[in-house]
Amino acid sequence: MEGYDLIGDVHGCGATLAALLEKLGYHQRGGVYRHPRRRAIFLGDLIDRGPRIRLAVSIVRRMVEEGEAHIVMGNHEYNALAYCHRAPAHLGREWLRDHTPRHNRIIKETLDQYRDHPAEWEETLAWFFEIPLFLELPELRVVHACWDQALIEALRRQYPDGRIDEAFLEASMVPGTQPFQIMDRLTRGSHLTLPEGIEIHSGDGFTRRSFRTHFWAREPRTWGDVIFQPDNLPGRLEDRMLTDAERARLSHYDLGQRPLFIGHYWCEGIPALPTANIACLDYSAVKFGRLVAYRWSGERRLDANHFVWVRVPQEEEARPRPWEIDFD
Predict the structure, then answer these.
(1) What is the pLDDT of residue 203?
(2) Burial, 113: exposed, middle or buried (Cβ in 10 Å; 0-12, 13-18, 19+)?
(3) How far apart are the two ends of the chain, measured CA to CA in Å?
(4) Which domains, from first to last, does the chain contain?
């Protein structure tokens, strides 16, 4: 083993994933992408939005089951589990994740692409329960959105391998509970609420009343010190001072800790490192950005030269088309 190739949010870009794996030196043998000296680690969010969701899931699941890859759960896998599980009576609703217009819109492509394959979708949901929320190896860590040591230790006490069950899924639907805090922080990261009456109209068509924050500023003072999303804050809100209560809600990942790999944050442009020991690998592939990998070979201090990516062009004829990949 030379190391790991960590791959960011795929979001149904299955053909692009196949092209990236080929670029990294993985080749199909026995229906599974394999590398003679390396393993892949996927950062979650395999589903939703993209054109070949079933293909993306099939590629990754086969690699994981054959020992060629690891994966951590993203918020979209978590959302799918909650969307498709009926709620217990005491919650007062039919589904764990309400079937609102917004939630319906997010999962629509996934359900459409599995519509003629209901048994495969049920198997996929069952597989999602086998995906851990985090991965901690002797020399690196992986989580979809935010590494919060206290919450991870709390999860480990009940679920040592980081894999949740239906009982935990149900408990995580109740705001204020520890299961809710664990799922929210690890799969969605931290966020701060915007002032009353102020909204962000994002490029993806959603209206948001909060903004995503990062967790590596040592002594943040303003909202601008911690914002981590493509959309800018309205007006001069980046200059707004953090309150003590807001600062207390933020996590912090110190430079002295082992390398950490995350996805989730819809970065744009040329992949870059926010700090010497953190790499974000979500570069908006499904928005015609880049599907990004980091080729890690044991280094404690990360190197931006180790990013590898495949562009996702908007022109249909220019997109990756590995026709030899067909799992139907």
Answers:
(1) 67
(2) buried
(3) 32
(4) 3-318 (3.60.21.10)
Q: What are the pLDDT digits (tens) for 138-159?
A: 999 999 999 999 999 999 999 9
The Cα 99–Cα 302 span in angstroms is: 41
Closest to 274 (Cα-Cα) out of 233, 213, 193, 185: 213
| 216-to-80, 125, 213, 274, 300 alpha-carbon distances in Å | 29, 33, 10, 8, 17
Query: What is Dmax (Cα atoms) for the chain?
Result: 56
Q: Flag whether the pTM goes above 0.90.
A: yes
Task: Determine contact, residues 296/5, Cβ cutoff 8 Å.
Answer: yes
pLDDT band at 313 (very low <50, low <70, confident <90, very high): confident
What does the pLDDT look like over 184-203, one tens digit per residue? 999 999 999 999 889 887 76
Q: What is the mean pLDDT of residues 19-39?
A: 95
Pairing, β 290-296 against β 27-29: unpaired
Residue 30, both tokens = 């026995």
